[in-house]
Amino acid sequence: MPPLLLASTSPQRRTILEQLGIPFDVARPSYEEHDPPGADPIELVCEHARGKARSVAAEAGDRPVLGVDTAVVLGDRIFGKPDGVADAERMLELLAGRTHVVLSGLCLVTPGWELVEHDATYVAVRRLTPRDLAANLAHREWQGRAGGYAIQGRGAALVERIEGDYLNVVGLPAALLVRLLAERFPGLYGFG
Fold first, then answer.
1. N or C: which end of the chain has fewer CB within 10 A?
2. What pLDDT was estimated at residue 98?
3. d(Cα 110, Cα 114) in Å, to the nearest integer?
4. Class of domain 4-184
């Protein structure tokens, strides 16, 4: 089976694909994300996923290209990756005691077609004390993480419950990807 070409350097996305037994190669996308104020979060993650996939499609040959983008959304605010520890603290303070949504856009591109879909997982964060915040920030897991936490690490202690695909919160909407591979490539990647 031809390996997917993953348009991402995310170690979490690589780990999830390995966990699912999906063969893949990695290409660094040249697409630059821009998050205009007031953007619709679903449209934004879908556009970023599409942009990442398209930016490496020429390297893929006949192989499918996978692009993914994830954002944390609370109300009308989109939380990307924190700019520093103060930004991570601000994000966690806003998420504390509330439920937010983790949105991912997923794009599959082949020479013959392009498919873009999204998935959403709801995450309830418990109320956090100053000690909780300090401990989480000290471990520096917030670096490079949308919303300032890593649910697969110490950030798990911040979460009361989730509704939806856990792996979506980690960084790749696995249930959506498996469904699309089963529909578009029945049996080829072991699904469908």
1. N
2. 98
3. 6
4. alpha beta
φ/ψ bin of 188: left (φ > 0), alpha (ψ from -120 to 50), beta (otherwise): alpha
Q: Which residues are catalytic?
A: 69
Sequential DSSP letters for the chain: -PPEEEE---HHHHHHHHHHT--EEEE---------TT--HHHHHHHHHHHHHHHHHHHHTTS-EEEEEEEEEETTEEE-S-SSHHHHHHHHHHHTTSEEEEEEEEEEE-SS-EEEEEEEEEEEEPP--HHHHHHHHHTTTTTT-GGG--TTTGGGGGEEEEES-HHHHHTS-HHHHHHHHHHHSTTTTS--
Q: What is the pLDDT of residues 14-63, one digit of tens each?
A: 999 999 999 999 999 999 988 888 899 999 999 999 999 999 999 999 99
Q: What pLDDT is attached to residue 80?
A: 86
Q: Other C-beta atoms within 10 Å of 188: how many?
A: 13
Residue 22: the pLDDT is 97
User: What pLDDT was estimated at residue 55?
Assistant: 98
Output the six-digit token pair for 51.
Answer: 């942009």
